[in-house]
# Entry
Amino acid sequence: MKIKVPNAEIQELLSGRNYSYPKYVTQILNLANQNAQGTRPNVVGQMSDLIQEFEGTTLTEWEKWYTEGRPDAIDKATDRVYNMVSLFKEAIVTIDKDTVRRWVEELVIVKTFAGLKFQEAILKKISLHYNKPYRLAKPDEESNGIDGFIGDKPISIKPVTYKTKMGLNEVINVPIVFYDKEKSEIVIEFDETKL
# Structure
């Protein structure tokens, strides 16, 4: 027998609390938090370390222990995220159809062209390093997070800033080549053992 338990239900089973939000709210809050850095370790603590230090067993004990040790953390994080949401509210009223069209045009025309050529330059440079052929991914391969191949090895190409976003919604099951675009050069970073 298999029983599937969604994450929200696991949280509810463990906490007895049911959190629900209007449609799109959590996406906006996640984006606001990402921009405001409201739940970074310098604001709320290094959670992976704190949960290891915690010696209790219940959610109530954890909540008490955490809030006694960091009495202002939840409020500080809330203020940061809420301030960003307020900025989003101000920005959203300035978005008209022309703004959306310019954004779509930039994404579809300019960024796609530059991005594909960018990826090709990175693929070519790595292929020269390994003395192997390269190719860009086909559409069905792109839908699996693959940007190209070095020899027969699939790779994904991401900006170095992607490292801070890893673990959000996207799952990439191939080696990732990171790049950092500096003023006069592109710095490429990858694990040689995976290529």
User: Anything to note?
Assistant: DSSP finds eight helices and five strands in the chain. The two ends are 40 Å apart (CA to CA). Strands lie at 134-136, 148-150, 153-159, 176-181, 186-189.
